[in-house]
Amino acid sequence: MTKLLIIGGSDAGISAALRAKELAPETEVTVVLRDQYPNFSICGLPFYLSGEVSDWHNLAHRTAEDISKKDIELLLNHTAESINPDTRQVTLRDPQGEVRLRAYDELIIGTGAVSADAGIEGLDHKGVFTLRWMKDMFAVEAYLEAEQPRSAVIVGGGYIGLEMADAFLRRGLHVRLLEYTDSILTTVDPPLAEILRRELERHGVQVTTGVGITEISEEEGRLLLEGTEGFATATQLALIAVGVRPNATLAASAGAKLGIRGAIQVDRKMATNLPHVYAAGDCAETYHRLLEANTYIPLGTTAHKQGRVAGENAVSEASVRFPGSLGTQAVKVCDLVVARTGLRQKEAQAAGYLPLTVDIETWDHKVYYPEATRLHLRLTGDQATGQLLGAQILGHQTAEVSKRIDILATAIYHHMLVDELSDLDLSYTPPLSSPWDPVQMAAQVWVRRDEAL
Ligand SMILES: Cc1cc2nc3c(=O)[nH]c(=O)nc-3n(C[C@H](O)[C@H](O)[C@H](O)COP(=O)(O)OP(=O)(O)OC[C@H]3O[C@@H](n4cnc5c(N)ncnc54)[C@H](O)[C@@H]3O)c2cc1C
User: Fold this and answer.
1) Hey, how many other C-beta atoms are within 10 angstroms of the C-beta on 62?
2) How far apart are CA 150 and CA 170, in angstroms?
3) Catalytic site residues?
4) If you measure from the C-alpha of residue 109 to the centroid of ligand 1, how many angstroms do you get, rounded to a whole number?
5) What is the pLDDT of residues 279-299, one digit of tens each?
6) What is the value of pTM for the model shown?
7) Is 339 touching ligand 1 by the criterion CB < 6 Å?
8) Among the residues of 291-400, which ranges form H helices?
């Protein structure tokens, strides 16, 4: 009987386990994770801290009991310390500190990512947090309850920083957001980021861009954050949200090759260079469907899909290939949602396309029906071929932003031309859209070209 061992019990690891069991029920599947929260949605951490999710147990995609019912063995609070690919054994440390060897026929590494620290000194002070694991969430919650801070500074204006700004606002804190670059949320174009910035400011968040924090110290019972060009600010709580890096040291010490940004190199079957060893999720590289090359895009959506592919290939002869990511993502910031898919102008240019981006602003639905709101769309296409390359949308959270970005992600997946978007038979009722959906209006502007940026 094949023994499949999976290191990591989150999105990638559990997806792999479920798929392997589905295809080859006779496989002995064991999932090892170093905490006690298998298959928890860490994407939900900000929404527990905001108070919108009242019971943390509900953050579980499925419970440990659900997983065990699928005949998957879970080893909670076990840390994989080393892998020997020659003998096909993994050294595990159990909760009592005992070390033992575990044999495998096939191994999947899904060890995820860890929070980056950008070299900031003083992260060990009380009141300074990062947010990646359930234990981080419990630590922030305990501090909020015990210390009742009135102010928070968030270092990093990426999507986690923005979600946490929203969360702390909901908890009644005065929030300051600091970002190193000139614009927050650098995954979208500056004009959209500027609208988000105004939204945060409208809700009382103090946003400062162009400042990098280098050191945190304690002064008179408060945290002092100091940074570039003499910048200094005091607060009671500091959240460092400056990105993630792949957790790939275990794989690397076993001889796995690392690639982009230190992530584990994988082919499209999610196989590493080591025999019988696969990797998936935030610890691994991500094949990009448009770039036709590996990149690093750590997202829960991708981790699920890569885990599924790794699980399938580990137990069958099927040789399925990861179809590729487009980096599709959405984030809600106060009353707005912003989303993107595919490539932006500069990214497309760097990839050798001849891109053109148009920008339109229109109503999300027929304006005679109450509560119509303004929707911003940016569409990027290749002038040489007419192929749709990318899109960014920003609108009110009721404006179906994610539905619309998903239409465009589907179109890009199928290599559609921008012009073909007008042919799509999209739904219409006045409270939700227009006879030409805004996505089609943007496509028509792109095709006319003369209104291009
Ligand atoms: C606050 C926050 C919000 C997010 N929001 C979104 C979102 O809205 N949309 C989206 O698509 N993505 C989002 N993400 C990203 C998403 O959560 C990750 O891409 C996803 O969790 C990656 O899954 P993974 O299985 O690869 O790794 P992880 O979730 O990082 O899990 C790694 C697993 O490996 C285990 N492990 C690590 N090392 C060892 C070891 N040596 N031994 C044993 N076990 C080990 C860990 O215990 C864990 O079980 C968010 C992330 C955060 C932190």
Assistant:
1) 14
2) 12
3) 43
4) 12
5) 999 999 999 999 999 999 999
6) 0.96
7) no
8) 300-315, 345-350
